[in-house]
């Protein structure tokens, strides 16, 4: 877990190569670590976070219809505006929002 914490610190400081190295160390200890894999992906593809980008799309484009496949807990669904017709598709939804 300490490698993941170090990776997050490096990412916050814009040191993405160091963050990737830390994630690689974590993955060498546990190749099935979803957290290490996700952290590495964010470090390698730095930029606006997914939910931030989706929020911006909803706020600026104000789509009339929004379809989301793979809604899981609904974190991204709440970003759709009240007047947007929203369709959520998920084989095992666990909506919390």
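Q: What amino acid sequence fits the structure above?
A:
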């Amino acid at each position: 877990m300490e490698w993941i914490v170090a990776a997050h610190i490096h990412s916050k400081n814009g040191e993405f190569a160091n963050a990737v190295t830390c994630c690689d160390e974590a993955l060498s200890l546990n190749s099935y670590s979803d957290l290490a894999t996700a952290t590495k992906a964010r470090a390698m593809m730095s930029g606006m976070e997914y939910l931030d980008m989706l929020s911006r799309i909803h706020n600026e484009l104000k789509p009339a219809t929004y379809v989301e496949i793979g809604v899981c807990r609904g974190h991204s669904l709440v970003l759709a505006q009240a007047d947007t017709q929203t369709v959520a598709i998920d084989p095992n939804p666990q909506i919390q929002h």
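Q: And what stands out in the fold?
A: The helical segments are 2-12, 16-29, 34-44, 50-61.
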